[in-house]
Write a structure and sequence with these properties.
Layout (H helix, E strand, L loop, with lengths): L16 H96 L4 H4 L13 H17 L4 H10 L4 H14 L5 H6 L7 H13 L2 H58 L5 H33 L5 H11 L5 H22 L4 H11 L3 H16 L15 H13 L2 H59 L1
């Protein structure tokens, strides 16, 4: 295409009608071709999309159905196995429950029976209680606490312990508790209160507080620990005092045997020879005559006192209180006994206050749990002073049974709101003091006992040897 020299640059020249018609025709063809190609492309794309969609839809559907079928078969197999195991478990539990119920019925029937005729035939003044060892009770309480941590309810643990301790007073007590709890007549703690001859009151009180807070197992463990701690101190004191007592008893019996059976033989021999016994041997014989009467009076006095206290004295409250007060002032042994009583009182108070019991109820339980009548009377009297408003909890220290230093610590703890911590510290302190004083008691008694035994043995040996020596001298002179 050419432009005339007169045309303006940038402006297209006008076309002739023929050229314009040709141009329009070419443009229409090009448009038709483009539309046709666009339609063909759209059709091809639609076909490809449909094929892809069909392929995608077909393949997952077949795979999903097969997978679901396999999963369904596996679930059915697991369900059948679970159902089979459940049936076996239910059958086993039913069998165990039936067997346990049978044993429980036998135990309950046995516990409910009256006492055998041989006990009833005895005179009333000869009746006695068959006491259960506190260590055995504490051990059973620890086992009960462990079972309560995993059991649902109290009946099964009680039934298990009734079977474990069958044919004993402890087993009968657990069987009676099971009967009361299973029948709904008593709660767990109240059923234990009914067995106060077996279980100390502190255990029932801790159990009662634990039932309200859901900590029955924890409180039972605490009660068992308090019982075992008191028994441990008692055993140490007994072992410290029994060894010298047994040693003295054996050597005194040996001395009596020499005086009664050996020296009289030598006396008769010397009398037949017309000679007197050696002075030391004669002194031992004369001393033995006096010792026989002293020993007879002493043994008779001990027997009389035991009989009196067994049947009359232990019911005299004033006498028991005076004996309790004197026991903490006995030389050498008194401080040990006082430390033991203080450990018991402070451990009970700290344990009960820690679980939420009131000051008054804690003091009452500590008083009932005390085996010393003086401490029991003192704590009950202090409760009355608290009720009258003349004293408070920290005023329990009287300076005689409970030292002033302990009262000072209790007062500071009471004023600062940390009385539980103060009581726990006092428990630890007097526990260490009790162990230390028990060891010192053993250390002090052993030299005394050994020295006395050695002196008596030397006296016996010399008094026995002198007559033989004199006889030998007499034979050599002849």
């Amino acid at each position: 295409m050419t432009f005339s020299p007169d045309s303006t640059p940038g402006v297209a020249p006008e076309l002739s009608p023929k050229e314009q018609a040709k141009r329009d025709k070419d443009f229409a063809k090009e448009q038709a071709r483009l539309e046709k190609e666009r339609a063909r492309n759209q059709k091809s794309q639609a076909k490809l999309d449909g094929a892809a969609a069909a392929k995608t839809a077909k393949t997952p559907k077949v795979q999903t159905d097969a997978q679901l079928a396999r999963e369904r078969a596996g679930l059915d197999k697991q369900r059948k196995a679970s159902e089979k195991n459940r049936v076996k478990l239910e059958a086993r539990e039913a069998s165990q429950k039936a067997q346990q119920d049978k044993i429980l019925r036998e135990l309950i029937e046995k516990a409910a029976r009256p006492v055998k005729e041989k006990v009833d035939r005895r005179p009333k003044w000869l009746e006695y209680d068959r006491n259960v060892k506190p260590v055995e009770v504490a051990e059973s309480l620890r086992i009960l606490a462990l079972m309560l941590e995993t059991a649902r309810g109290e009946t099964r643990p009680l039934a298990t312990l009734a079977e474990q301790y069958k044919k004993t007073e402890l087993g009968n007590a657990y069987a009676r508790m099971y009967q009361l709890v299973a029948s709904g007549q008593k709660s767990f703690s109240n059923a234990m209160r009914e067995e106060e001859k077996i279980f100390p009151r502190i255990v029932a009180d801790l159990l009662h507080v634990g039932a309200q807070s859901g900590a029955e197992a924890v409180n039972l463990k605490k009660g068992a620990e308090i019982m075992l701690e008191g028994q441990d101190l008692k055993q140490k004191i007994k072992s410290a005092t029994m060894q010298p007592i047994i040693l003295f008893s054996v050597i005194i019996l040996f001395l009596y045997a020499v005086i009664l059976f050996v020296l009289p033989v030598f006396s008769d021999m010397f009398e037949s020879l017309g000679k007197p016994l050696p002075p030391l041997s004669q002194f031992v014989m004369d001393l033995g005559t006096g010792l026989i009467w002293v020993g007879a009076i002493g043994v008779g006095g001990i027997i009389a006192w035991t009989i009196y206290y067994k049947f009359w004295g232990k019911y005299n409250e004033k006498l028991r209180i005076q004996l309790g007060r004197l026991s903490v002032k006995v030389p050498i042994l008194g401080k040990v006994l006082q430390s033991q009583r203080l450990v018991q009182v402070f451990s009970i108070l700290s344990g009960l206050l820690e679980v939420g019991m009131s000051d008054r109820e804690a003091l009452k339980t500590a008083a009932e749990a005390s085996s010393n009548a003086a401490y029991k009377y003192h704590l009950l009297a202090h409760i009355r002073r608290m009720d009258n408003g003349t004293s408070d909890f920290a005023g329990v220290a009287d300076g005689y049974l409970i030292p002033p230093s302990a009262g000072f610590i209790m007062r500071n703890g009471f004023d600062s709101g940390s009385e539980i911590k103060a009581l726990a510290n006092l428990t630890d302190f007097y526990r260490r003091e009790a162990h230390k004083r028990t060891e010192n008691l053993t250390t002090a008694l052993q030299p005394i006992a050994n020295g006395a035994v050695g002196l008596i043995m030397i006296l016996v040996i010399v008094s026995t040897y002198l007559p033989i020596y004199d006889m030998f001298l007499g034979l050599t002179e002849v």
